[in-house]
């Protein structure tokens, strides 16, 4: 039986690990490579690196980070942020990542999803969607796709976008609630459940995880296959082992590494 | 020295990095003549069996792998590299390498909650005490990403199983050949141990 996955998201800016609340007020909280190795050794299932480097001429720093991680960490990891083309993705995958996260670039040009899937296989393509609750009549599900950290509305319905992303060749979907992100008050369960019920590919809950109970909710009531955590681990409030033990004790199928 | 076969199927660099980490010397090659002289081969792979087979044929690597199999040197197939060692696959009309009898079948779960591809960590259950799997403990999990699974014709070629709707062969092998459907290079300490044992294995299955 397949285990539910615990994934940690590491935001990287100019080669440093940072944490932002609602994508603003970023804080330097260390070296991404040593954090990745620490989590790997503690039994984490997967990693996501999000490059939030502002200027494109600093992007090569990220490739160095990816290569360093790939030399020391032997679990799957994906990289997102600033990837716009098959060529961008090829560089990141060549440096050692298993998967790429497409977000803004896919909203601007959905065909990039199928181009990347054709080039590297659907298993390499993660569609990352930033979502905000919307009362607009043009958004039937009540959830809208946003970009630029939630500052820009797209007019696209989240359910419709998830369905389209899957059809275009995404192999997984990260559902990131901008409303919940950084609050540590729990994942957006209604949204997560809606997407998980719509697509036939794995769904990763993201944004709002603050306590192990929140992950349990996302993986049961939310219908998610994996849950993404950031602050919970980065600030040392919880360890990989303590989160996994909690989920295991709740009866979820979890990979226990016995370390 | 381990020769890691490069046929544009993705994960040869990850395999080499894992071997580097273990202190095992390896070289990535797409040269069939070099493979003909290899003393130990890893045959990795990600993606589609069909395009993988086409590339292997173009480079003459299919013939080189078959003769390496016949020479009796230890060979490890990984993921698509594992699938192609069988006689055929539901994913392609092209004949596969036929180093192990049997076919690759597609997952067709009755349960709509079981998504395809089968992606993530799942338990391994060893069916034989194969030397490469000797460190495996009950409950050990490894990382899978695949829509097709190997189904050897001879039950004795199934070395370990896993379960996803159906019980399927997760490790197969015959004589000097062993192959994992999962990614040893991305399966944490459990995968690294299997890789380390393969690097030491003399190719004798008993």
Summarize the topology.
The complex is a heterodimer of chains A (259) and B (206).
Chain A lengths: L4 E9 L2 E6 L2 E7 L1 H11 L3 E6 L7 H14 L4 E4 L5 H9 L4 E4 L1 H5 L2 H10 L4 E9 L9 E5 L4 E6 H11 L3 E6 L11 H10 L4 E4 L5 H8 L6 E4 L1 H4 L5 H10 L10
Parallel strand pairs in A: 1-4, 1-12, 4-5, 5-6, 6-7, 7-10, 10-11, 11-12
Antiparallel strand pairs in A: 1-2, 2-3, 7-8, 8-9
Chain B lengths: L1 E4 L6 H11 L3 E4 L2 H5 L4 E3 L5 H10 L2 H11 L3 E4 L1 H5 L3 E2 L12 E5 L11 E6 L1 E2 L14 E6 L1 E5 L5 E7 L1 E9 L2 E4 L7 H13 L6
Parallel strand pairs in B: 1-2, 1-3, 3-4, 4-13, 5-6
Antiparallel strand pairs in B: 6-10, 7-9, 8-11, 11-12, 12-13
Key traits:
heterodimer; A: 259 residues; alpha/beta; TIM Barrel; B: 206 residues; Rossmann fold; 8-stranded mixed beta sheet; 3-stranded mixed beta sheet; 6 helices; 13 strands; 27% helix; globular
Q: How is this structure best described in words?
A:
The complex is a heterodimer of chains A (259) and B (206). Chain A has 259 residues and is of the alpha/beta class. Chain A is built from 10 helices and 12 strands. Chain A has helices at 32-42, 59-72, 86-94, 104-108, 111-120, 158-168, 189-198, 212-219, 231-234, 240-249; strands at residues 5-13, 16-21, 24-30, 46-51, 77-80, 99-102, 125-133, 143-147, 152-157, 172-177, 203-206, 226-229. An 8-stranded parallel beta barrel of chain A has the order 1-4-5-6-7-10-11-12, surrounded by 7 helices. In chain A, strand 1 (5-13) and strand 2 form a beta hairpin. The longest helix of chain A is centred in the N-terminal third of the chain and has 14 residues, at 59-72. Chain A starts with a strand and ends in a 10-residue tail after the last helix. In chain A, 55% of the residues are buried. With 206 residues, chain B is an alpha/beta fold. Chain B has a single domain, classed as Class I glutamine amidotransferase (GATase) domain (Rossmann fold), CATH 3.40.50. Chain B has an 8-stranded mixed β-sheet with strand order 2-1-3-4-13-12-11-8, with helices on both faces. In chain B, strands 5-6-10 form a 3-stranded mixed β-sheet. Chain B starts with a strand and ends in a 6-residue tail after the last helix. At the A-B interface, helix 2 of A face helix 1, strand 7, strand 9 and helix 6 of B.
